[in-house]
Amino acid sequence: MKVMIAGAGSVGSSIARELVLNSHQVMIVDQKAEMAERADLDNVQWLIGDACELAVLQRAKLEEFDVVVSATGDDKVNLVVSLLAKSEFGVRRTVGRVNHPKNEWMFDDAWGVDVAVSTPRLMTALVEEAVEVGDLVRLLTLKSGEVHMAEFTVPHDSELIGRTLGRVTWPHDTTIVAIVRDKAPFPPSDDDVIEGGDEIFFITTPEAEASLRTTLRGIKR
């Protein structure tokens, strides 16, 4: 997979390292020439320039990339890069970093953003997960706020324990996409029996979230 990352700061660099370790082709676009001399990113292709400029993205041949990640510390830049990637180059998938929660509403398909990643929201989700096992935690907003990824850690006294996934009546517009048990993820099936401590990951809609919370909290044997 070919991935272009706008911004060589701590976030962009961390993403690049992970992608390279997983054998993906990565290009970083940044205005600071000295960034390209970093020893910890020697397997990354560099392009020095402003990722908001169409000419720079043309030099990058952005139409050949599968994913564009806008990871700068400036929300305006991240929006512009995402919009150009979608509208001018037809990039299949864009991921935009949201630095300020007040701007999150703009990171939608109108600006070419497929997935908005809010660092404050993710940090809040992790805190909530740590202190509120047994509550549904929203992790990511996908596709202009119409779809969410959420996680639920099953408490060890939950009424869910011992039930198979197929015996639970899940709300409409809700899909279980993965379960993590003993630090190992696996795809769900109707025959899987729920255990205490399971982390269940859902794709759901804002409208279905309330019903999902009720289901997770109020199931009786």
TrEMBL record:
InterPro entries: K_uptake_TrkA, NAD(P)-bd_dom_sf, RCK_C, RCK_C_sf, RCK_N, Trk_Ktr_HKT_K-transport. GO terms for biological process: monoatomic ion transmembrane transport. Pfam families: TrkA_C, TrkA_N. Keywords: Ion channel, Ion transport, NAD, Potassium, Potassium transport, Transport. It comes from the Bacteria. Signal peptide: none annotated. Residues 1-117 form the RCK N-terminal domain. Residues 137-218 form the RCK C-terminal domain. This is Trk system potassium uptake protein TrkA. It comes from Glutamicibacter bergerei.
